[in-house]
Structures are given as C-alpha cells and as structure tokens.
Amino acid sequence: MHRNQEAPLVEIRGLTVDFDGVRALHGIDLAIARGEAVGIVGESGCGKSVTWLAALGLLPARARVSGSVRLQGRELLGVPPAVLDEVRGRRIAMIFQDPASALNPVIRLGRQVGEALALHRGLGGAAIRAEARRLFELVGIPDASRRLDAYPHELSGGQNQRVMIAMALAGNPDLLVADEPTTALDATIQAQILDLLTLVRRETGMALVLISHDLGVIAETSDRVCVMYAGRMVEAGPAEAVFDEPLHPYAQGLLAALPPLDGPRRRLDPIPGTVPPPGNLPPGCSFAPRCPRRVPACDHVVPALSEKVPGWAAACIRAHGPAMADRRAVGA
C-alpha cells in the first residue's frame, strides 16, 4: 500500500507462492513509488526474500507463483524469460546477503562488473573499464583502478559488498532490492554500507527496498516499513509512526525485544515461540499462539490488512488507530 498519487513504479497484488503444494505466501499486496525507500522486516521464515524472488522470477521450477507483479503497468508474472532478462538488472536490481557466494571467485572483479555493463548498457572496450572504475569510486572502494584487477578473496567482506552494489548499479536501475545487505558485516562497515545506499538513492533517484530482520537498519534508511509474519503482511505504514507506536502485536513484540540505547536498563521481553512452518499454520491468525492480546476470535478469523488510519494498516482484529493519530499527519 502507498499514498503517492502518482502511479506506482512497482505494484504487487495478491502474490501467492506454493512449494510442493504448501503455501508460503498468502496474497501479498505492496506498491513502491519512484524514489521511495521501503523497509521489509520480520523474523526468518516470514517470506521477506521469497516475495521478491517470486516477483523477479528467481524461484525454482517447483514453486507455483500467482497474482500480479507490474512494473509501470507492465505485467511480469508469466512473461517469457527474455522479457525478465530485460528487467532484471536493468530496471530492477537485487543485492543478495552473501557477496562471497554471489561473486565468481576465479574472475577478476572488473570483468564481473564489466559483464553487467555490457549486458545492460551495451558498453564495450575501454568504456567498460572507465565506467567500472567510476562505479567503484562511487561506492567508496579505495584505489579503484587496481581493485578492478583483484579477485574477490583479495578484498574484505565490506569491500565485496560494495562491489555487489556497484554491479547492481551498473544498469542504472529504477529499483534496488537489497536483501540483508549488511548481515555478515561488523557494525562500523554496516553503517558505511547503509549510508552508501542512502547516498546513492538520493543521487540517482532510484527506489530502494531494504529487506532485514534488523529494526535499527530499517529505521535509519526507510520512509515506509512493512512488517511480515508467516507469509503475510501484518502492518504497513510510515516508518517513524510504526516505530513510535506500532499497531500490530507482532510489531510491538519486535520492538519490545530490542535493548534501549539510553535510559535505565530494563529486562527485554522476547516474543515466545517461533514462526510456524508454512505447512503447519494454526487456524485463524497465525500469530495468535504467540500473542499476548489473544482472544477466542483470534483462533477462527484470519484478519485482513486494513487501514486503521489513512496510510497506516494492520492485520489484527484488536488493532485500532494509534493514540496519537489525531495529532500525527500519517502519510502526509
């Protein structure tokens, strides 16, 4: 959901995914506006990465995908592979969480970035090396000319992640999907990568989708946040509002489990239990067995994601508008 009056850049409607007859995604609705930064959060197994792998046609053949994924009104689901090849990297690029497995260990980095430049922008010869060097400099890789001739094992994890970002930017994409881009990095390098993504987004005008289980990462970089649980979207709204006063008990639980950075120390309140496997979801609300606000109706009703105030939605029969809603211009 979004409140931008312009047509969305990417619009996902009713997206479902089944693996061997077991449903993993239950009708995801999401729209991304041009230049917008959207964070997607949730525990492992909630469907964050599967949503975008399905949207870009990157799931294995055994996956059954249905619904609609539109890029500026053009349907992407079910189109021939040649059409997706034009979209992936050129219009929508994706950064994966482990650069060590995404980069080819026996090919020099400049050549790997150069392949993307040749494929998506038709460059050749000296123009490829010049543009690859520019991209390396853009993402903050020191001594860029020399690093073009290096192999992945000669760089640190943080520098390899910067190479992945450079490769993603090679096609000048309209949307960059970053899937846990800072998971394997220490806190200092993580902050540098997040600052880099924010800077690139502002300079190029591209939209950004940041997938993470780290709420701090999302809070620093996103205009809007979507919370997923057990293959469903359970809350979506302006990032500042959601982090100040989340509506859904799951989002409340995620924030309650975070240690405070200032003030007196307090006992953390972890969410009991774990995310249920897709093939063994409870009846009614999937979060009900872990929810402190559970009532009998929660065991029978699958709540729909509905607006509680304009631009801010939650999937909970007990969620209402925030206490401060009358004093907050939500989505303005």
Instruction: Give the distance, in angstroms, between the N- and C-terminal Cα atoms.
Output: 14 Å
* Average pLDDT level: 88
CATH superfamily of the largest domain: P-loop containing nucleotide triphosphate hydrolases
Which structural class do the helices and strands define? alpha/beta
Shape: globular
Per the CATH scheme, the topology name of the largest domain is Rossmann fold
Q: What's the CATH architecture of the largest domain?
A: 3-Layer(aba) Sandwich
DSSP helix count?
11
Which consecutive residue ranges, at least 5 long each, have pLDDT under 50? Answer: 324-332
Helix fraction, binned, reads 25-40%
Q: Specify Rg, calculated over alpha carbons.
A: 21 Å
Q: In what order do the strands lie side by side in the largest sheet? A: 6-7-8-3-9-10-12-11
Helices and strands, in order, run as EEEHEEHEHHHHHEHEHEEHHEE
Number of beta-strand segments: 12
Largest sheet report? 8 strands, mixed
Number of domains: 2
CATH class of the largest domain: Alpha Beta
Strand content: 15-25%
Task: Give the tags.
332 residues, four-stranded antiparallel sheet, eight-stranded mixed sheet, disordered C terminus, 11 helices, 12 strands, alpha/beta, Rossmann fold, globular
Describe this protein's structure.
With 332 residues, the chain is an alpha/beta fold. The protein has 2 domains: 221 residues, Rossmann fold (3-Layer(aba) Sandwich), CATH 3.40.50.300; 71 residues, no CATH class. Helices cover 30% and strands 21% of the residues. It has 11 helices and 12 strands. The strands form 2 sheets. Strands 6-7-8-3-9-10-12-11 form an 8-stranded mixed beta sheet, with helices on both faces. The protein has a 4-stranded antiparallel beta sheet with strand order 2-1-4-5, with helices on one face. A hairpin with a 2-residue loop joins strand 11 and strand 12. Helix 4 packs across helix 5, helix 5 packs across helix 7 and helix 7 packs parallel to helix 8. The two termini are 14 Å apart. The C terminus is likely disordered.
